[in-house]
Amino acid sequence: MHFYKLGFIFICIIFLGACTSATPGPTPAPQLPSLAGAWQSTSDANIFRDVGLGNLQFLRFTESSDSSGSLEVFGIRPETNVLACGQLVFATVAEDTLSLYSDVFSSRLLQFETTDTSLTLKDESGLTQTFTKVTEVSSSAICEKASFEASFETIPVNLTSFTGLVSDGTNLRVASEDGNVYPINPSNGQLGVGTVLVGGNFGIGGSPRHIVAMQGTTDYWGHCGCGGSQEIVRYKAGAATAVDIIDTATDLPKEIGVREAVYDGTHLWIAGYSYDEGKYLILKVDSDAEPDVLLSDFAFDDGLIGFTILGGQLWGLVNVLGYKLIQIDPALGKATRTIDIPALEQGNFRGLEAFGGSLYLLAEVTQNTAALYKVTP
């Protein structure tokens, strides 16, 4: 075959191949950067400052294959040493943009820049926070976790708006909007027969029907939940006269709006908000003395939802990125342990009481239904 014929065939083959080749597919999407792993803050800024997290110390991203997953945040509230641990859902929606969501944080977008060893986050206001890659989150920044050992979620009682959970040594007790106090069997959650709680207002301007502590097996400590609620009253169920009235403004004097209390066998600890100082305080009072004597006080600026004593230690219930149990050292005025507890599917926690070596948490599920949960820290 002549050379020019071979060349002609070769050219035809080239053109034929070009004409019959498949149409090129779409350009692959760019690979989104990975944020997986633990990151330690290297700046004083707090990208989550609006949710009461305190000082943000660490982040931990756990990614799935589609550049989304969970983001754990680890902070500390320096005023109280309560650890602020929480979890969000995240998705990398662009090469420089994160979408975040949780019930606590709500949805938000953050811009980011990252290398193998550094991460910078910027919020919508322009605030930036920098992080460095670390092997793991420091153990001192991680909340302990506890599960419920027992739960009773259909207790038929309409809790008063500020009632706590108290114990007479045999049963747990709560105050109801029907004017009665009811025992609850801690072993099975059964509600007992109610008895009339308050026989009078005792001259404090409102009924101290919101019980927050017991002294002995018969005496309740309660407040009226009205105005400043500066008084706390000791009384027996149904009695027309009080055993003792502590007016925090005139008797101590360290005026607070009383919200929680616990009697340790010798002294009464009272927690509430000081409008004069603009913070929450915990007062240690010799309530058996007359007049009552303020022995000490300290600021604890995370409002307590529940307050009790277990094993000689003060324990509280707070809501910091979700509900947490905390152990409080009164000498330091700080929390020494923070325990994350399971979230409620419905309702809110309302009280805390120690019984039989464990802690019991009271929750209001609906207006006419309460729940009880057992935890051993």
Walk me through the structure:
The protein has 377 residues and is mainly β. The protein has one helix at 3-20, and strands spanning 37-41, 55-63, 68-77, 82-94, 97-101, 108-114, 118-122, 128-134, 144-145, 150-155, 166-167, 172-175, 180-184, 195-196, 210-215, 219-223, 231-236, 244-247, 257-263, 268-274, 279-286, 293-299, 306-310, 313-319, 323-329, 334-340, 348-355, 358-366, 369-375. The chain has 2 domains: 37-142, Lipocalin (Beta Barrel); 146-375, Neuraminidase. It has 1 helix and 29 strands. The strands form 6 sheets. An 8-stranded antiparallel β-barrel has the order 1-2-3-4-5-6-7-8. It has a 5-stranded mixed β-sheet with strand order 9-26-25-24-23, with no helix packed on it. It has a 4-stranded antiparallel β-sheet with strand order 10-29-28-27, with no helix packed on it. A hairpin with a 4-residue loop joins β19 and β20 (268-274).
